[in-house]
Amino acid sequence: MRTHYCGQVTETLIDQTVQVAGWVHRRRDHGGVIFIDLRDREGLVQVVVNPDAAENFSKAEKLRAECVLSITGKVIPRTEGTINPNMATGKIEIVAEKLDVLSMAEPIPFQLDEKNVGEETRLKYRYIDLRRDEMQNNLRLRYGITRAMRRYLDDNGFMDMETPILTKSTPEGARDYLVPSRTHPNKFFALPQSPQLFKQLLMMSGFDRYYQITRCFRDEDLRADRQPEFTQLDIETSFMSEEQVMQTMEGLTKTIFKEAIGYEFEGDFPRMTYAEAIEKYGIDRPDLRIDMQLVDIADLLQDIEFKVFAGPAKDPKGRVVALRVPGAGSMSRKEIDEYTKFVGIYGAKGLAYIKVNDMSAGIDGLQSPIIKFFPDQVMQIMERVGAQDGDIVFFGADSAKVVNDAIGALRVKLGEDLGMLEGRFKPVWVVDFPMFEEDEETARMVAIHHPFTQPKATTEEILNHDAPHQMLSRAYDLVINGLEVGGGSVRIHDSKMQAAVFKLLGISDEEAQDKFGFLLDALKYGCPPHAGMAFGLDRLVMILGDIPSIRDVIAFPKTQSAACPLTEAPGMVDNAQLQELLLRFRKPVRSADK
Amino acid sequence: MRTHYCGQVTETLIDQTVQVAGWVHRRRDHGGVIFIDLRDREGLVQVVVNPDAAENFSKAEKLRAECVLSITGKVIPRTEGTINPNMATGKIEIVAEKLDVLSMAEPIPFQLDEKNVGEETRLKYRYIDLRRDEMQNNLRLRYGITRAMRRYLDDNGFMDMETPILTKSTPEGARDYLVPSRTHPNKFFALPQSPQLFKQLLMMSGFDRYYQITRCFRDEDLRADRQPEFTQLDIETSFMSEEQVMQTMEGLTKTIFKEAIGYEFEGDFPRMTYAEAIEKYGIDRPDLRIDMQLVDIADLLQDIEFKVFAGPAKDPKGRVVALRVPGAGSMSRKEIDEYTKFVGIYGAKGLAYIKVNDMSAGIDGLQSPIIKFFPDQVMQIMERVGAQDGDIVFFGADSAKVVNDAIGALRVKLGEDLGMLEGRFKPVWVVDFPMFEEDEETARMVAIHHPFTQPKATTEEILNHDAPHQMLSRAYDLVINGLEVGGGSVRIHDSKMQAAVFKLLGISDEEAQDKFGFLLDALKYGCPPHAGMAFGLDRLVMILGDIPSIRDVIAFPKTQSAACPLTEAPGMVDNAQLQELLLRFRKPVRSADK
């Protein structure tokens, strides 16, 4: 039904007859002639309908936006004044010889160039929303990324393999989506939170290098950047060290950026230990575009009278830091109040600051209500943070967690607010994660990565460790611009070590056997050393395209209440269907609006 | 942990030191020396452990099959008599200088070369089963096929796009897998039986050419070649006719066969109408490797006394056919009895036959108990089927359905039993399907393909048709060797025509609005003509690899009762989880062993 895409009809086709098909993007009547901008996947082209072609003209008069047409006509050059140098097809137009209306359109609920269309409306009429340039570009970018991924992995000996969607509850810790089994009454499948155990089993099966771009599922209350189903590039390798996995994945990342958006990283990605990231940035996914660091000053303030600083400075679980913000000394009281409110979100009880007016004047050149509490230390602090005239220095003093969360977030917010982002993409590998942390609620040890990650310790050491939270793991995360692109680890490939980790996590032998018996078995029958990684595809598209919302990188996403306004899923089912599953509704025990 | 894959250490590496890693495939002690066949994904290599390397030797003595090793050693040529020309690595061996046991193996539950291991055992220890050559090859073939698909579609302007897994019940007619929603009490997602409506919506969104290799789900009682989750190559295009879609998919098929197994089809795939397929082969997916056809003879037998033939011959819903089997005239009574039993499976009440001893002797040269019932017609029948000396001719007379099913299946069975398969792969496009058929149970019209397929009729004709079962559709199936590889159709792109089809199918306006309201809406806002197709990936792998079981082309399949012996999915869930979903168990109303 066409010889060319609309966006591909250029001046090389002048005097030729072409056939194009697409949507009426705009219709203008001008000087007795009708101009139609016809749109398809590849762009726009201008079609001219002259009144002397009476049948075409009368059809064209009835057209409205988004009607679908087929046009046959001759390509002619545009007259001098009407050339549009910003359009690929801007030098020509097509004189319609034949105009067929393939589909009339009713008036559409919103215009494609309309701003501020509500998200619910956009999702309900997603097939219109997706016609917009922005959404076309986002999904084309997504495809470009997956294609680059596949090419790289195909070329590097990885095999694309599928793992089950109907499977057993996996132990990522989030809530599973459950699927009742009809053939096994009272039993359920779970949708996978990741193919973690299957990919490990594929290594035990000898496939050596596996990849899959696959859907994962978590039934959690949704934050802004989460979806109930999300897509992951999942990777596992045998006989490779973490160093080799990181190099391979770094090569993959560079390939993706180059092929999908033409961006080239310079040199190797820097490495940083978890401890260094927390120390300097308060967070394990530092945004290195911002050239500011948290500086520890607890050692200087342990003995002062001022309890707000001295308390956390003396507490082994406390932390006191300074954050120098270059050139921001002219910040207003109102702005400072707003940042104080901001750090309050993270539990900080206030936000002390010092404005640096004139370093050469010593303490007199500083301006702050708090100087009086540590006059003897203040210049030493200023020197340690490298303060210069015109700076402001913020302070955080609280439990280490609150300080890291609050001042770490403040650092990023200041960086963005003050236009301090340097460079387009700043990657960093974060390594030497702790293996375990204490769950605040249950006071039990939990695995930070997951319980199949290999600790940097022997089985003996795991069983007899007196400070498990100090044990490091062979895990690694790739962070770009402060966002976690992916994470991975060397896995345990020894059943005794796996059992020791389960034991440390307080998982009884019986529970371990029940949930992971097949893994513990498999580890006994010849398991290669193996390591892997997973990249969050949705987030990667967001990073490469600088797209703030996860719902703008997925063709048919769910709302924050995990529903689809387009299809109205989830929906009611017949009682007969429930009956077949041997289920019935329980009377709601909580409010139905939850 | 290695410099080379085991299977890649060849004579070009002689005198070099290499490092390999893999599984102990075999260990032999011979003349005081230990020989290990070490196996990885790429093959086997022979490792020699000499007794003078005492530490290595004592490690090697403890090894059993499937232990995982790392070996560093020098590549040397094998001595004259020990060269194995059938192995890529058969001219060399590696003398172990360093032998590390990466993982000891307990005695494995079955040997890799063991025949007749039960399928339940194979699936329970799938990670061992998958190490077998056969399974490695099957899954590598599967990957080769998907890679060839992607390359071809990428090169032809198709975009890989994802559609939801958590969605609304789709209307393919099979039973849905349901997923209870926690955030929307008493509502359910359904897992997709196919992405049919989403891919149509993507065309309405202007993406023009879409593909996805995606999981689909059907909660049906499993036949031998079915799985609860299966994989489909899903395709949709805009502004293409069925002819263009078929050409594109034919190109895809040729590319797959060539790239995955090096097979080249000659010329274009033949086309056949549904009517012709039924007439000649009794089935809409004819196996053209078998050069036998059903021949209608009802016209000759309407007026004979013999009711068994005359009844169906006179009945408009009956059918009488002859099937000539060349050179099978020496078939024994016992064999014929077995084929009679075979057609009984399909409802045939008997299987009449005539053996052709001597055509030149006329009726006297034929041998059969039934000749006496139509002596005047028998020679005409023999001529019509082209009978020759030494043939046997079978007869079917019953309802058209029974005759088509029984004699169609008999044709294939005879072709296989008698070694009549000609050629390796015989493709055929089947076109001009009927749009509707009557459901035998409900006597309602149902869509043969699906209700979004475009009939070869106008909306007016659909609304006023007095014989809807005679209406053809714009559907097409690709059949290879009697197996349906894929099917597709031109879709309805007009809301009035879609509504007319729903009406003909007895779907009320209210039901249509409830289930497909979003589609009917979408059709009103500018819908391009579109058409598509889906290929069953699992079946395609079975065809290309000549693999009889679907469970041998899937890494982690389910059993026929839809369970996974490896992970023991489906499993029990905590009552708390059910409670969160506001569900409870219903007391089973049928036997629990169902």
Structural key phrases:
five-stranded mixed β-barrel, 594 residues, BirA Bifunctional Protein, domain 2, alpha+beta, OB fold (Dihydrolipoamide Acetyltransferase, E2P), 29% helix, homodimer
CATH-defined topology of the largest domain in chain A: BirA Bifunctional Protein, domain 2
- Helix content range of chain A: 25-40%
The 3D shape of chain A can be described as: globular
CATH superfamily of the largest domain in chain A: Bira Bifunctional Protein, Domain 2
Could you tell me the strand content of chain A as a percent range? 15-25%
CATH architecture assignment of the largest domain in chain A: 2-Layer Sandwich
- The tally of domains of chain A stands at 4
Unreliable stretches of chain A, pLDDT < 50, 5 or more residues? Answer: none
| Rg on CA atoms of chain A, Å | 30 Å
For the sheet with most strands of chain A, the description reads: 8 strands, mixed
Oligomer status: homodimer
CATH class of the largest domain in chain A: Alpha Beta
Word description of this protein:
The structure is a homodimer of 594-residue chains. With 594 residues, chain A is α+β, with helices and mostly antiparallel strands. Helix content of chain A is 29%, strand content 24%. Chain A has an eight-stranded mixed β-sheet, with helices on both faces. In chain A, helix 10 crosses helix 12 (400-417). The two termini of chain A are 50 Å apart. At the A-B interface, strand 1, helix 3, helix 4, strand 6 and strand 7 of A face strand 1, helix 3, helix 4, strand 6 and strand 7 of B. Strand 23 (583-585) of chain A pairs antiparallel with strand 23 of chain B.
